[in-house]
Amino acid sequence: MNRLANTHSPYLLQHAENPVDWHPWGDEALHLSREEDRPIFLSIGYATCHWCHVMAHESFEDREVADLLNAHFLPVKVDREERPDIDHVCMRACQLISGRGGWPQTLLLTPEGKPFFAATYIPKQGGFGQLGLLDLLAKVRDMWTGTQRSELEKSADSVTSHLRDIQDLKPAALPGEEALHSGFSRLGEQFDATNAGFGSAPKFPCPHQLLFLLRYHARTGNSEALNMAESTLRAMRHSGIFDHLGYGFHRYSTDPQWRLPHFEKMLYDQATHLHAYAEAFATTGKAEYAQTAREVASYVLRDLTSGEGGFFCGEDADSEGEEGKFYVWELAELERILSESDLALVRTVYGLTPEGNFQEEATGKRTGANVLHAVKEWADAAHELGQDTADLDTRVENIRGTLYTQREKRPRPSLDDKILTDWNGLMISALARTGSVLGEDHLVRAAEEAAAFLRSGPAADRSNLMHRYRDGDSDIEGVVDDYAFLGWGLLELYRSTGKEQYLRDAEQILGALNKRFQEPQLGGLSFTPLDREPFLTRFTESFDGALPSGGSVAAYANLLLAELTENPESRQAARANMESVAGRLQEIPTGHTFWLCALDRYLGDGTKS
């Protein structure tokens, strides 16, 4: 067992038996690197990451790689979800050096922590023009101990200088409705009219884009905005990224048609989908959106909720060493457990074939396995097969139950059971809002239980939040997302329950946010508290990616707080945050759609969701 055995992170613990002499990130590792004059080999990933597992099996469990790393480098592991402050800086370095980003991240740093090499997944052996990890390590070892060390140090200084010059913010006068019109227009240009969603493969769901479209429709009555949102919501619900048996959404689709998922299930995806489907139901009254929201919530409460009331991070893409094995089906297995007529119905609905509809992401090779993705409605399939449609709903539920029960006998993907304050805050907001819209009181109660757990643990001090909780331990300081997301969640709970304590806690948390993170020189919110020394550089994060940015959620939550308390200081804080990114918002509105939701709220006369 290496040093990672003493950590709390499920991801780090996955590597505790590697022959690599890993160190967790911290002063001890940095000091040892300087003392022994060894460059740092920094590997960043997370517990449910498929390609992180691939690189671990190929390289970090390999004695040849381990010997090279242990002898000439200081190997350091970071859980990106535990240390987003480290991950964000390193991701910027990776994009700056290699032109791409993702996980696992692989970086080489000087003993002062300055990066001079960065990449994502690297195979053990090179080929097809790509340098393998063994070759890379040997080359850097020779450069570091030979005459070329100064080149590496010069490169590290240059990269660090560029990192410190990167500016996410672009202050400008706060725009009016024209920014909302521009955001709608740009999304329209990127909309996939054939398959729904935005862009091509890989296709990532971005529910906050749909929230903006729904609110733009509420403001303007624009039917195309509603159509883009609804067609995307329907496509995702029928797609392979939705788990049709156990419910919940997988991370993203590897193809433009939403058929083949990347299989990990993340808590934050469930939360943002809940917001989008609940909002769609509130806008249209269509039962299909309410049903999807109920199904997603049922997955979270069943599989991602701790006995203490908090919410776990997510489930792995892999099981039994294979990506997606838990979720896919071969026809031979289905033939054994379903009647002939039920099998015919399932094959027609989900597009199942003997050769399989699932193919490996890396090779494109068909595996004989099938992903369930609805190509037809059940009633249409029954009509096409000439089968009786009477009591179809009962029949479908029985089929689903049979398949679900059979699937539960398989070894499950591993669970990342750490609890993050920011993601829990986001889920609290989603459950409170969804429960209120759908009239599902048990969802609101689940949100209350999570809030009570946080209040007694990582959020016990509302002015100094902790980021991560696991095994009774909360020792990682919070970042801007923790304050913004939990503040929003508590405000939604107050709106759903009317309980004054949630409003008071939200006021305290957002007050600490505005005081401890508002950066006078940057003009926006620092990702880390101003009273804490950052890694390499202090930065802001304005881009609304898989998650809305902490800044956009902070602006939205401050506006909501101002409405509930008539406090002008909260509204002014929101305006200052929006002005700090106003230039970016107008240049790249599709990358700032939750900022647009905040702007819509600030301008008034739109939805009051």
Task: Describe, in plain words, how this protein is organized in 3D.
- The chain is α+β, with helices and mostly antiparallel strands and 609 residues long.
- Among the domains are: 3-165, Glutaredoxin; 327-409, no CATH class.
- It has 24 helices and 14 strands.
- It has helices at residues 10-14, 27-36, 50-60, 63-72, 84-98, 133-145, 149-165, 177-190, 207-220, 223-238, 267-284, 287-303, 331-337, 340-350, 378-384, 392-407, 421-438, 441-456, 480-497, 500-516, 550-565, 568-580, 582-587, 593-603; strands at residues 23-24, 40-45, 74-79, 105-109, 115-119, 252-253, 261-262, 265-266, 314-315, 318-319, 322-323, 415-416, 419-420, 468-469.
- The strands form 5 sheets. Strands 1-3-2-4-5 form a 5-stranded mixed sheet, sandwiched between helices. It has a 3-stranded antiparallel sheet with strand order 8-9-12. It has a two-stranded antiparallel sheet with strand order 6-7.
- Helix 9 runs parallel beside helix 11 and helix 21 packs antiparallel against helix 22.
